[in-house]
Amino acid sequence: MGFEVLAKGNNALRLLSGLGVAMRISLISVAISIVVGIAIGVIVAGRHPAAFAVFRVYLEIVRIMPQLVLLFIVYFGTTKALGINLDAETASIIVFSFWGCAEMADLVRGALLGIPVIQYESAASLGMPPLMTYRYVIVPQILRRMIPLSINLITRMIKTTSLVMMIGIVEVLKVGQQIIEANRKSSPNAAFGIFATIFFLYFIACWPISRLAAYLEKKWEN
Amino acid sequence: MDVILEVKNISKSYEDITVFENLSLTVKKGEVVVIVGPSGCGKSTFLRCINALESIQDGEILLDGEAIDASSKELPRIREKIGMVFQSYDLFPHLTILQNLMLAPVKVKKTPKAEAEKEALSLLDRVGLLSKKDNFPRQLSGGQKQRVAIVRALMMHPEILLLDEITAALDPEMVREVLDVVLSLAKEGRTMVIVTHEMQFARAVADRMVFIDGGKIVEEGSAQEFFDDPKTERLRQFLNSFSYD
User: What is the ipTM of this complex?
Assistant: First the structure.
């Protein structure tokens, strides 16, 4: 079945470290997206027309443009056009953060605007000062709305890291291809074994996260 | 009787639309004042001005002689003394009923948890909702939520309660259970300012009726005078619109 190649040399370890590269890119991007995305979302929820217009354009660009095209623009495009020599991993993190910030900001914006004004007013009329109102009334409600959705975004980002091999990053899928190539003669079935293993690795990385999302969603459905 | 609330000549407008001008109202301790009037007459806005949810352009509002000012740092402290219940169910959806009741006393007043819980449970029992203490608001009917909202306001030991059309969004069969709670509060001498469309209830609960129309107090008086012997044509018309004979 081709699984035997995993036992050869340090192939299994190489696959794992490939997964490590994918996880590193996605987790750094996720961290940036959460921090910057929340800031952008709060600003856009302020209903300033210009801020909202700029944000719409940004969001549409992110949603319309395939991530791969963005990767190519940032990695190959900037080198020629701007003379900036980005390494591939930095370029990937820029692209994934660019995407993640837009989506995260949209989630924050939606959650913030979805809180009825009466929630602020009833807290205020109980004598709660603004900071206390945010701390105990508004933010918990926003988190409950946002966390399941943003976890969904995180798993999508992890999956999409498979694209970064197109700009030369040796992540788990690329490692897999290399192993298959190197063992073409000795294990002609390696493709199945390796790709099945990669499938399993992605599953291991994403499944707990999406279970967590489902759990939180159920716990907070009120 | 001591005066608790003094509203002196307040005016409210949005840009070029005047909601009301020169409205004054004095409420004494233990008094129940019911404000009625046609939709859009400014009565809800008037109530919201009292605890500075709306700003006023002119005049002043004094609670126990202390000015209520929307821009004051002291506003949260003054608002503790003013309980308010709104038309829409405004419980905090992420907290259980008990947590809804305990949040403000524990965080704002620093009441010890055990003490706040004891009081919350006894008040819940009084409005017949003790069994719902660990439920979330979405599991309650509209009438039950409004009873909890009243209890939540009471938990802060307010000196005055403002009720803003608290039964307007309820199914008819739930109106009674909420108004019964308000009636019992009136009996125990709570000071309240109530905006409502329930005329029979108003008559039963009010020490004094106030009729607002077109941003002005058109008529005020005891419940009996007000309903049986209205002085102004405008109030007569308004009261007639509620009867079918």
Answer: 0.90
